[in-house]
Amino acid sequence: MTPTKEKTMHVDHLDFRELSFSRLFRDYLADTDAISGFYSHPHTYNSLKKVVSSYKARSDRRETARITAEFNEPFLQGQTVDELAGILAHEDTVTITTGQQLSLFGGPLYTVFKTISAIHLARSLTRDTGKRVIPVFWLADEDHDFEEISVANIPERNSIRQIALPCDTCARHAAGNIRVDEAFENFRSDIYEALNPTDFREQLISILDDAYAPGRSYREAFALLLSKLFSRYGLIFAGSNDPMVKRHVTECIRTAIGRADEIRDALASQSERLDQHYHQQVQITDSLLFWHDDEHGRVRLQHADGHWQTESGLSLSTDVLLQQLEETPERFSPNVFLRPLIQDVLLPNAAYIGGPAEIAYYGQMKPVYELFDMKMPFLAARLSATLVEPAIQRFLEELPFDIPDYTKRFEDLEQHYLRKFGNPELDGHFDTWKKRVEELTDEMTGLMGMEDPGLQKHARAISKEYSKSIDKLRKKMVNAIRQKEEVQVNRIRKVKHALFPNDRLQEREISHIYYMNKFGVDIWDRILQELEEQDQDLFDRHFLIHL
Q1: How far apart are alpha carbons 163 and 165 in whole angstroms?
Q2: Which residues, in sequence order, are bridge partners of residue 161?
Q3: Which residues on neighbouring strands pair with residue 493, listed in sequence order?
Q4: Angle at the Cα of 106 (from 104 to 108), degrees rounded to 5?
Q5: What SS3 class is residue 178?
Q6: Phi then psi for 412, rounded to 5 degrees?
Q7: b vs e for 454-488, b when ≥16 Cβ sit within 10 Å of the residue's Cβ?
Q8: Which residues, in sequence order, are CB contacts of 79 under 8 Å at separation 6+?
Q9: Which of 82, 321, 500, 514 is the most exposed place for a label (fewest CB within 10 A)?
């Protein structure tokens, strides 16, 4: 898609400290002393360039290049498998990777923000290092959290319409293997009904229908959607739910089995150190592995005293489990800590792009990389952004709040506005009234020589009742002002709803297709172009993108 130049985007920034980002994430970006020991590289563009420029493959790359290229065959547009394999096998090719669950129709905004981040950094690094840097999206095709991927949120007037695809049996299956079936058609219809008629609606629906064709797996559909949007920027895909991949990374899984106790202890020790300063992101378990059970699906492999078992009843010795690995590697599946290692074995990967939660759990992993005789990649923060629609921008200019103020509850914003701008001195007048009642009560009990404690208590009770009546009157006056200021109050509600829906960051709540439908299917191309024109390197601030 060629980006249009009709409307020029305007970009502002917010410091992450002004929003609800964790202290660990903020300290990582600032490279504070407290964060030392948890990561291998400071979060600077010069450091990233050095990592990319000095990258050396661990082994012969031809086999991993062939596997990755064949994995991409269904998603390639204008390129052959052999051509991609040749590029990946070249000693000067490096990858920069991001990834996400296979949310239906692409999921919330941060999915495309991750993709945009990988593409932008790959282009910048190719220009600045002399290496060929390829952006990779790692498909979480073994994830089983169907409930999380099966929901799409589409904004309505002052609410969010949550559209979900119910499935009683899907939780037992890897998300990547589930197929677009008759049940999906109801979900599709509900989504299309929620998208308002616009000049771009039919084009968007065509793109979605092409990707999510009946019979196609969720992995294929998700990757095809991103491929249609971003393949011209060189984006490719990878994942672990593939027999060739599993066979190639058996050594990594073998280490996870053979050194399970050391890995658990290293994770526990690092997490304990992290806990002294921050909150650890992922709880430690006694194994990095899941087992694919024919009856129960993906179940955790639990390890103790040289034995491995699952809640489904499987019980194996380490030797037998290693034999199973040789015979059926496809039965093994990585957890959140093993997935990055498999990713870095398969790809010539110099960096991973993640959000705050991912950067947090990487902080638990440094000693695990060492046990696998590997180096932790550079960790780059993804683009974090709020999209500001033109109507919302006009309201922002009229209202007395800064954007971070809208993280507060709507009720608090409303009360603040009504008290300050309906009658700025209203609160002060009512507070003075109540204070004078209390002072008059004290004065009169003294003048009347009211020494009896019971009488004093009764007098104070009368004063409190009077104060309550004053508060009731205050509320009535505020309600009267509210009616008068109803237009502005509704604008506050609209801004709050648009920027922080459900009191969360917009990027985590709203489906990205809502913005494609409203502002054009090339909206992401235009954002990429804007980042290019700004000469943006790492994303160390929250972006405000005015559409």
Answers
A1: 7
A2: 154
A3: none
A4: 100
A5: coil
A6: -70, -40
A7: eeeeebeeebeebbeeeeeebeebbeebbeebeeb
A8: none
A9: 82
**Cα 155 to Cα 178: distance, rounded to the nearest angstrom:** 27
Residue 489 neighbours by CB under 8 Å, 6+ apart: 414, 417, 418, 482
Encode pLDDT of 78-118 as tens digits. Answer: 889 999 999 999 999 999 999 999 999 999 999 999 999 99
Q: How far apart are CA 348 and CA 346, in angstroms?
A: 7
Cα 99 to Cα 111: distance, rounded to the nearest angstrom:
8
> Rounded to the nearest 10 degrees, what angle do helices 62-71 and 81-89 cross at?
140
CA gap 184, 188 in Å, rounded: 6
Burial class of 99 by CB neighbour count within 10 A (0 to 12, 13 to 18, 19+): buried
Closest by alpha carbon to 155, among 537, 501, 451, 462?
A: 501
326 burial (CB, 10 Å; 0-12 / 13-18 / 19+) is: exposed
Q: 59 φ, ψ to 5°?
A: -155, -175
